[in-house]
Structures are given as C-alpha cells and as structure tokens.
Design goal:
heterotrimer, A alpha+beta (about 100), B alpha/beta (about 300), C alpha/beta (about 400), B: about 300 residues, C: about 400 residues, alpha/beta, Rossmann fold, 2 domains, seven-stranded mixed sheet, six-stranded mixed sheet, 13 helices, about 20% strand, globular
Amino acid sequence: MKPYLRDHTPVLLSEIPDAPSYEAGFLVSKNAGWRSTRPVIDTEKCTGCLMCYLHCPEGVIYKAGGKVAVDYDFCKGCGICVRICRAGAIETEAER
Amino acid sequence: MSINVRDLNESEFFYGHKACAGCGGSLAVRIALKVLGERSVAVLPAGCMSAVGFNFPQLCFANNAIISTFAGTASMLTGIEAGLRAKGVSDFHAVGFAGDGGTADIGLQALSGAIDRNDNIIYICYDNEAYMNTGIQKSSLTPFGARTTTTPAGKNIRGNVKDKKNMFEIVAAHGIPYAATASIGYMNDFMNKVDKASRIHGTKYIHVMAPCPTGWGHEPCETVEIAKEAVDCGLWYLAEYEDSEYILNRNVKDFTDISQYLRKQSRFRHLRDEDIEYITKSRDAKWNEIRTKYKTV
Amino acid sequence: MARQFISGNEAFASGIRLAKPHVISAYPITPQTVVVERLSEMVEDGSLRSEFIHVESEHSALSCAIGASSVGARAFTATSSQGLLYMAECLVYASGGRFPIVMMNANRSTALPWNIYGDQRDSLALLDCGWIQAYVKDAQEALDIALMSYYIAENERVSTPFMANLDGFVLTHTYEVVDVPESDRADLFLPPYETDNRLDLENPRNLAFSAGPEYNAAFKYKEHAGMMNAKQVITEAEARFERIFGRKYTGLIEEYRTEDAEYILITLGSIYPLACETADALRTEGVKAGIIRIRYMRPFPAVEIAEAVSGAKAAAVLEKDISFGNEGTVYTNVNSALHTAGVRTVTSDYIGGLGGKSISGNDIRHIYDRMMSGVSEVRFIGIDDRSGEGGDAS
C-alpha cells in the first residue's frame, strides 16, 4: 500500500469533488526533476541492512531480493542514503 | 518486544510529497505512520507537512489524513477520536503531526486541553526549531543564538536571545500517561516510542527532533547525522515520562563538541565564543537537573 | 408531545436532544451557557447518549466539532459574541470543508464596550463565512429549528453548516410554553447522517486539503451552490416537519399582513411579535402596515423580499446591527435585493437594540411615522438628544 501515480488528472468541474475530500494517496506528478544527482545501489556491496530504507525521507528505497532498490520517480537526490550506508554501497551519480 | 527495521510495515503512507530534499520532518512522519499502520487517522495542521502533502490533486497520504487549523491539531484529534468511538469504530490511532510553532506556540492551548481530558490520541511534535513553512521565523522552540528571518544576526543582536522552551516537561507536568523525546538521528528509539505510545490508553506526546536543511543551513544529506549529533553533544536528550516518573534513556557520559555541532549549521555561524560558552553552561545546568530529577537507565 | 414551560436555551437543548448528535463540544459563554448545561444534564441522566467534550476554548469547540464531522459523526456546539468571533477561523473551515455542523449562537453585543446583552452584530459580522444563518422568534421555533437544522445541513445537496441565532436574554432566557415532541417522532423526521465526505477506515480519504488557483474557484463555486440549494431543502424540511408535527413554517421569510400593505417593516428575531402587534394597532388607525421577518439571512431571501415589498410605498429595516462606515448589513442586503428585482419602493434603515437596549412599540410607531413622511434615511433609534434629531447615520 502506497500512494501511486494516476493516469488521469481531474480538470473538469464535474471531476472536482463537492468538498475538499478525495481518494487517499492520489499522485499526479513525479519528483524526479528535483534531482541533480542520483543514488545508485551497488548490489554487490549492499549488505541488506536497510539503514538507507529506514532513513529515506521520501520512502523511495524499497526492499528487493534481500537488497534494496530506488524508485527514481520520486527520489529527490538528498543523499541521506549515501551518507548512512556503512558498507559504502551507494554511489552518487550526476543526473544528465 | 522491540520493533526494528526488519519488521517495519512495508507500506509507504507518506509518499510523493513536495518537502525539501533531506527534510527531517517528513522522515519523522513517514516512520511514525509505518509504525502505526493503515488504521491511522492523521491530523496535520497548516504547516510544512500539510503544505507539501495535500495539494489537490496531489494527495500524498495513503491513510486517512486531514489538515486542521494551525491551532487546532489537538482539538481536531479530540473530535475525530470521539466521533469514531461514538460511531462504534474501534482499533484505530488518531495521530497528530504538528511542528514546533504549531505545538509550542499557537497549538499549546488545545494540546493542554486534550491532555487534561486524557483524550485517547497520539500527538507527535516534529521539532525543526522555527516556522519553516513560512520561511524560517522564530518560534518558542527556536534555540538560543539561532538566526531566523525574524531574529536576524546583526551588529546589535546575534540571533535569537531566548532559550528553547521545554515542551516535554510542560506536557509531563499535566500528568500525561506517556510523553517522550526522540530524534530522527536515533530512529530505533523513535520507532519504539511510537510503538509504545500506540499501546497506551489516553493522551500520548512524542517530541521528535527533526532537522530542516533549509532552515538550519546544512546539507540535505546531513539531516540524520545532525539530528544524532544534537543528542550526542547534549543539546537534545532522549527521555520518557511514564507513571509520573521521568526516565533518561540515553545518559551521555562524554558530550561531543558543541561548537562542532553549531558550526555545521549556518544559522549559528555568527555566534561568538561567549555565546557558545553560554550555550555550554545552559546545557550543563540542564543535564545536572536531568541527572537529579530523571531516573537513569 | 409534552408541553413544557422552558426558556429559549432549554428549548434549543431539547431540540438537540431529539437530534441525537454523536459529539457535543461545550464551552461556556453568557448567554449561551444554559444550552450546554442542560445538554450535560441530559448526558448525565442518560436521556442523551452523546460524547460530551469539555473543550478549553471556542476555537477548540468548533475545531472538535469539525473533527467529529470529518469522520461522519453528527456534531453540535454553541456559542455567543466574543466566542463566535474567537472561533471565526473555524467557521470558514467548517463551511469550506462542507461539514454540516449545527451551532446555536446566542446573539450578543460585541466588545468594546463590554456588554452581555443582545444585539445581532456578532453573527451578522460573520455573514460571509458560508454558514446557513437562521434567526428565530420564539422558544418553540428554537426547538423546531434545532431539529430541522440537521435535516437541512446534512442533506447531500446542501452539506453546509448551520448557525441558529437566538436573541440573547430576550429569547434565550425567556420562559414560554413549548411543545416538545416525542423522541420516536423526531426519529421519523430526521434520518441518520450519511456522507462520503468523511475519513473512512475501510476506504481512506484525504480531507481539508489545499487547492491552488487552478482549482480553488471550483470548490468555492460548489460551496455557493450548496448554500443556494438550501433554499429548496428548507422548503422540503418544513413540509416534512408539518406532516409529522403539525407545525407550519414559512421558508426564508415570514410575512404579516403584507398582502395589501403600503408600509412594511422588515426585521429579524424576537422583535417580530411586538412588530406584528404594533402593525395591528396601526391598522386600526388606518395605516396599512405589514411586517416581514427574515428567518434566514443565508441563503438570503432576495426574491421573496422583493416580491413582498414590491407593492408597498415604503419599507424600513429595523436591525440590531451597524456596519461601521456604511449602514446596517441587513439593509444593504435588502436594498440589493430590491434593486436587482427593479423594485422602486423607498427604503430606510433603523438601527436599534444595540447592547440590549429594548425596542418599544413606540419606537416602531416612530419608524412608521418616518416611513409615511416619505424620507429615505439611515438612523440610530434610541439616541436621545434635546433636538430630537439624534441618531442620524447618513
């Protein structure tokens, strides 16, 4: 369970609710454009300790096969994961 | 039984929000909701977390969540808890997430009322030590010396001249069933305090230190380290109040260097040695009091 | 049906007992306090099963009610004067959130100078907050409106909070014989509150969110539409009420001898019975006098007032309000309605009863004298000076 991107953004008057009240977790835009650098996981070095997952303010690091992976749609590139990783398994790469 | 990262709920309840990169407050909200789970009803007053999480049609909470008035976090929680109970709904957590201004300034009256009534709610104050959403203005939880946009550091006045209010002890003085301080630099401690709060009936208050790179002037990647360092240098402490007793969770024997902590943040960069000396003395006085008044473990 | 000798406040509390709110948030302020005292007694003796919350301010009273309403619970609170102003932020919150909370307001003067007695400056200052505003004339109507208010507010076409106004002391503290319906009859009238606009554990929602420039006006448009829909739903509620309880109400306005009236006094609240008596007396003297009582200030009965006034030579508003630097707010609203409808009747505004000063039959007669003289004026009444010209406010 998590908020996810929808294919349709409500625009018309008839699509806008009568009250400021709507389905929970309704996303229409990504945060990827915020990044100047991106964290890249070296799965060889990753010990699966999950400290990056625990400390990510975005919640974009998720468990994947005993290791972790990043949802780049919503990663802002803050670099907390890079600093917290004791195994040195997360590198910073410049966004092109 | 303690909770750890491995058995943390894998759902993400606060996702896709527009908080600044490296935001400590959003991390506190995210983790607390993972601990409390999908039957959480979250109340967030006007402030950073509501501004970044609820801009129609981008709605970033997977659980039930609502913005309250700035002053009304606790009173809205009261109404939600009473309303659901009156409708026969059980097994839910009414949880509030308010910043330092929303808690210690404008929301204090409502919070005091809720504690006085012992309403069955969890109130989490994410403390980033100023009104960050409006652009870094002083609150009553801004520490001594900090430069904010309403406590400028100039030739005549060097930032905030007031000491930080102790919300934890103010809350405890109500005789609340459970109160705690925490830090996102000590995440296991925070998670377990949230978990503990969720198992206690009545009003629960957790005050979690959550650095703000934008307002504190540190790199976004340093948020968690700075939060940890605040505890290690003794300017913040990890404690609980339960059964009318104060408990110090982390009795720091050798403090790390205060000036090192302060110098990492641009909000303190103007401080002179005498200011740092004052801050150090205040810390030592507080810790003397803590070691006398609090039970140490 | 039991006949009881009770005050306006007690009548309103009895109506709320019949509406069975899930949550009542209570904070004392004169002259509203008796309402929450009686409700607390009903909760204590088991005749009302509500969560009774002793909040620590009026801001929290309404914030708590909003919280309750946001989970689909029926909520009630009550206030007056400074308390109403203190919770003003929450008023727009409740209406913007489309939370159909009911609140009784004991109309009372606002400081400064301090004064605990009745005028209508408190609620009229907040006319634009998006709440339905009713003004009642007696204790029976207080009880009946308490019950009807939930039917109207909670109707899904309306979804708008409801403020019922009772003149402080004159109505809140005056004892009258009131028919108090049986609870099962009230249940027949008022269906349970059902809404999708709620935090729902089985179907999570995000509520009370932000909406930027692109979306904001759409929400406000819908909020206005909800209030306008209340006109129709008020009519439906009153028809249903009459079927079940036999008492008839007349929609947004109440008229007395206006059919052939040449001179019409327009007023609101508890002064109405005295105004009607005075009109009767004037009729015996050959003056074709009529009275309009505005029952709802929002939604505003623009069409109804214009229609009722259209044949008259002159109309005067008598109101317990002044919008400083302009005129009474009721007058502004009435004039706008007449202008829009193309009604050319000469109008005047008489501001009286401020801070609880009583308005006498002679004051009303004096207003009729002024109307018949053909003047159009804005004037405070009861401001005495030796010239007799005191009170000119134009």
